[in-house]
Design a protein that fits this description.
The protein is mainly alpha-helical. The longest helix is centred in the last third of the chain and has 31 residues.
Amino acid sequence: MKVKPIFHSFKTKDLIHIIPRLIVALILAQTLPFKFAGAEESKWIFEQIGWEPWGRYLIASIETVSTILLLSNYYIFGAIISLSIISAANFLHFTKLGFIVNDDGGTLFILSIIVIFCSLWIILYWNMQRVEQKVSNFELNWEDEDDYMVS
């Protein structure tokens, strides 16, 4: 079963993998202008971890690539990249930043949890499709079973 890119026509059952891809792409894409433009909150976050300014540009570039991949046939790579980046961000929330960053009410942390779950779903669904495809190619003829039984 070949998965179509998001921009092609699709059936209702295709939404099970399109919606998580769109959610992750939208969450990542909405943070990109703040990181590239050097918004105060982005600068503050990356100063706390000692990565300002080059780390901010690097993370924003990687998230851009991930967003583009999520909207293409290579969405599995985008999901793996987004899961990696956001897992690192969550680690920083637990260790250095805290759950509430600059009085945001935990919004960044909650969005990172959503990205983790959606990325995991994308990866697991992709893997289930591959297994289903391999199993469908494997045929057993149960009617011939009696021929091989030893009496």
